[in-house]
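haha ok so turns out i had the wrong file open the whole time. this is the CORRECT one, sorry everyone. sequence first:
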Amino acid sequence: MNFHMTEHGFETKTEFGTLHISSNEEKGFRPYQLMVASIAVCGGGVMRKVLDKMRMPAEDIAIDVKEVVRSQDDASRLLKIHLHFTVIGSDVTDEKMPRVMKLTEKNCSMLQSVMGCIDVVKTYELGTK
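then structure:
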């Protein structure tokens, strides 16, 4: 990736379009939003693969970022993220979900990258369509 400075922040061109990044959320994604999104979606993607391997394919996985806590210091670093997964699948069972959650955490590179730095709380519920 290659980032170039703009009037309001930075941008990069990708095969899907231009990604605008700015400290002003009216002008682009804020860096912390991209980090939270990366952690959430990485977890969802790994969860999908885990469920497939366990022969419990998901029809849908929704990820709700319930809480983001940032420090009050100048850097405003991320302290805590609460991710809530709603999993829909006719074969997905409540009994197997603790194992699914554990394997998701173990195999998600973004979660593993921030372990010990950011408290990532993960909760789930089984939903219906």
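Residues 31-53 form the longest helix (23 residues).
again sry for the mixup
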